[in-house]
């Protein structure tokens, strides 16, 4: 530990005063017990998994959920707007939906409605790698059809 501290101190000295002003400070602590305090790393988010996350009950349950909960915006209906809104989010290890956002939208209130639907969805079945639940990024297309 002392060797590492001396090496770090010598690197800071040789970096020069200008570099020292712009670099971030590193604090090293030694509790005397031989244990180092670790900074919590951000969890890994996978883009593919052995078992991808899914809506509980599958596609049929997802379609039923949409039919029951959708509120087609009046602005979109008045303008006859139909299409897909793509929403991206992360499904965590417990199946929670985190950070939903519109990737490709249609406007006319449909983007906001798609986000609302994603936010009120039940917890999903989490993605798994080697049988262990993991965080997985997911993009979901939500189809809107204006019936005339």
UniProtKB/TrEMBL annotation:
InterPro entries in alphabetical order: TonB-dependent_transducer (IPR051045), TonB/TolA_C (IPR006260), TonB_C (IPR037682)
Membrane topology: Single-pass membrane protein
Domain of life assignment: Bacteria
MF terms (GO), sorted A to Z: energy transducer activity
Location(s), subcellular: Cell inner membrane
Signal peptide: 1-20
Any one of the GO CC terms: plasma membrane protein complex
PROSITE patterns per the UniProt record, alphabetical: TONB_CTD
Keywords: Cell inner membrane, Cell membrane, Membrane, Protein transport, Signal, Transmembrane, Transmembrane helix, Transport
Protein's GO biological process: protein transport; transmembrane transport
Limits of the TonB C-terminal domain: 57-148
Pfam families: TonB_C
Similarity comment: family membership: Belongs to the TonB family.
Name of the protein in its database record: Protein TonB
Organism: Hymenobacter daecheongensis DSM 21074
